[in-house]
Amino acid sequence: MRASPPSTERTDLQRSEGGFGEAVRLTVPVAMAYIPLGVAFGVLLTASGINWYWAPLSTLLIYAGSMEFLAVGFMVAGLPLYQVAFTTLVVNFRHVFYGLSFPIDRLRGRARKAYGVFALTDETYGITSAGPGTHLTGRQITVLQVVSHVWWFLGALLGALLGQVIPESVKGFDFALTAMFLTLAVNAVRARRSATLVLLALGAGAVGHLVDRYVIGESFLVVSLLLYVAVVSATYRKGGGGAAEENEESEENEGGVK
Questions:
Q1: 3-class SS at 239?
Q2: Measured distance CA(93)–CA(190) in Å, rounded
Q3: Rounded Cα–Cα distance for residues 37 and 65 (Å)
């Protein structure tokens, strides 16, 4: 008879399997947005006269939903490379700030870290940094990102294949992204239980809107993020002020689990 594995090994195996399942489960709300959005992207791409295979290929090489939608217009219009590069910088500038709190230190090995940076999307950042996945291990974070990537790939592939069947008059696919962001925001507020951070975000957004409208156009995202990071950093530096105290109280009420 073959000896059964030690209890510690069985426990580690069960924990690993459970962790894998939890990471996949956290991608369900992501899939609810990525699949219809991917379908919409595939339909848009084929309707613009671009070969269908560019839809799944772009999800593998670019993997930036908003930029992939914009890239379709860029290709059709034939914009020069410098305009494409500048627009990409502006649209994805928020990822610079994501890197400040994304738990990349949990990812082991250069390959995982490299993919973690490449696959860092708004949704996976929200889940791992301020949502229900703040406690995930490095392996779970990788699983979360890979599965989320697969959802986007499958959605784009399906949309590309069905692009000639779905009428162009069909609207509403893009609202899935808005709905998903609202869900992630609600989960983040419930996890942190910090009214101060919400008010700071609203204030930064209001200032960013005014600057965008009356001072510098197309600057809403950059101004809002810079202002929010500056205010939150100043609050935390005081140590015991505002948002920091609320976060500490929240952690104590939740058993100190981050």
A1: coil
A2: 27
A3: 8
